[in-house]
């Protein structure tokens, strides 16, 4: 774009004038008219047989294509041809249905899903009233042992959140119809920690959540995560935030830049390489960027393999480079690395005391919309299933849930 327009303006004026003159040149004289006999012959030789071939082609199309009848009647199923999307045409013509979102029980492939989710309106404002929602995206192997705490957290806040659960493909989440998790499982695929399938699962969750136009913030959680504040507080903190909570930092050591592969040049240079926690929170703008990416993804897929853990580098690196000013550069999910080793601490029943929970909640050194604040984390991990009971006991008193 930039080079094209600068080339346009730097064109020497003599050339521009020269080309103007050629345009004003009168049509060259002396050109003989085509003999009308020859023209008529051409009509028979080329045009008439062309018409016949065209007609045969159309008849064949209508016979073999499943959308054949629609081809002539001009109705909608045309959009199924390439992507076979199971979308009711009424979805697009009834504005109320935009906010209901597309069904999450669909048969779309990842390619179809990401493509559809990458669409975004270019016009300012929205012609219908919309209450923004927060999408809670649970990435888990199977069950959600802390679900009762989350149920308590969500209760009474219908319309302000949506839930998406990605499990291992064979797993069926058994919850009663009264549960907030009821029928919130998305079509899932095999996912392994540390490789590209993890990013695929994250993108699958984002894409499903993007199909609901009301979703404005997107938080990735695991089955070991807990909320630290009541829902209304969490909701306001996220919806009113100008930044997305993605942790991203430059680690010069072996577990940071040491994992960089020079074959990623020129898409990613060593200086642009970032590291961060997998557990992100992003705005709709960033979510759309992530599902739309076809530039960085192949580089990370090919050149960031264990001992390079792609879920720790792909989003921090890409988002820092492309949308750095939108990032808070810190995670909104607390985790304890103080015990050392490759994995953060897992807390058990005995750890859940009032002072422990209060300590996680109270920090005093985090920027929020440009101001110093005391809230650093809205969520925490990793809590084992045994913590459920003591957490439920202290939820209302300590966490306000
Ligand atoms: C998806 O495909 C299955 C099997 O082909 C079918 O039973 C189901 O109704 C389809 N779902 C949707 C939403 O079209
Ligand atoms: C986060 O880092 C980016 C550079 O990668 C910077 O532009 C941005 O201002 C930082 N955000 C905050 C809140 O400091």
From TrEMBL:
Keywords: Glycoprotein, Glycosyltransferase, Membrane, Transferase, Transmembrane, Transmembrane helix. Residues 1-29 are annotated as: Disordered. One of its GO terms (molecular function) is glycosyltransferase activity. It is found in: Membrane. The chain crosses the membrane at residues 42-59. InterPro entries: BC10-like, Glyco_trans_14. Residues 1-16 have a biased composition (Low complexity). Pfam families: Branch. GO terms for cellular component: membrane. It is a single-pass type II membrane protein. It comes from the Eukaryota. Its main location: membrane. This is Core-2/I-branching beta-1,6-N-acetylglucosaminyltransferase family protein. It comes from Ceratopteris richardii (Triangle waterfern). The lineage of its organism: Eukaryota, Viridiplantae, Streptophyta, Embryophyta, Tracheophyta.
């Amino acid at each position: 774009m930039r080079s094209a327009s600068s080339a346009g303006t730097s064109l020497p004026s003599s050339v521009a004038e020269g080309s103007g003159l050629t345009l004003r040149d009168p049509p060259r004289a002396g050109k003989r008219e085509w003999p009308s006999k020859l023209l008529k012959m051409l009509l028979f030789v080329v045009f008439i047989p062309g018409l016949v071939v065209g007609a045969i082609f159309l008849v064949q199309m209508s016979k073999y294509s499943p959308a054949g009848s629609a081809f002539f009647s001009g109705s909608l199923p045309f959009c199924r041809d390439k992507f076979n999307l199971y979308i009711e045409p009424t979805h697009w013509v009834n504005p109320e249905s935009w906010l209901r979102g597309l069904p999450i029980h669909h048969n779309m492939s990842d390619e179809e899903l990401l493509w559809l989710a990458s669409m975004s309106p270019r016009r300012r404002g929205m012609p219908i009233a919309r209450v923004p929602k927060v999408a809670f995206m649970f990435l888990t192997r199977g069950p959600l042992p802390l679900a009762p705490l989350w149920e308590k957290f969500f209760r009474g806040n219908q319309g302000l959140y949506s839930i998406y659960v990605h499990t291992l493909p064979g797993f069926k989440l058994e919850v009663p119809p009264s549960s907030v998790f009821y029928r919130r499982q998305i079509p899932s695929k095999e996912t392994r920690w540390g490789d590209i399938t993890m990013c695929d699962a994250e993108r699958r969750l984002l894409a499903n959540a993007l199909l609901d136009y009301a979703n404005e913030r997107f938080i990735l959680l695991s089955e070991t995560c807990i909320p630290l504040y009541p829902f209304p507080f969490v909701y306001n903190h996220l919806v009113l935030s100008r930044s997305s909570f993605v942790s991203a930092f430059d680690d010069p050591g072996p577990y940071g830049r040491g994992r960089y592969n020079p074959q990623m040049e020129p898409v990613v240079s060593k200086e642009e390489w970032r590291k961060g926690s997998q557990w992100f929170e992003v705005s709709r703008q960033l979510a759309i960027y992530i599902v739309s990416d076809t530039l960085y993804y192949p580089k990370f897929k090919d050149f960031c393999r264990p001992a390079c853990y792609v879920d720790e580098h792909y989003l921090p690196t890409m988002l820092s480079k492309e949308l750095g000013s939108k990032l808070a550069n810190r995670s909104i999910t607390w985790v304890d690395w103080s015990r050392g080793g490759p994995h953060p601490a897992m807390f058990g029943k005995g750890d859940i005391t009032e002072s422990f929970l209060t300590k996680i909640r109270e920090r005093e050194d985090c920027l929020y919309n440009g101001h110093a604040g005391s809230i650093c984390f809205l969520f925490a991990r990793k809590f084992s299933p045994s913590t459920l009971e003591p957490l439920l006991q202290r939820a209302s008193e300590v966490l306000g849930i």
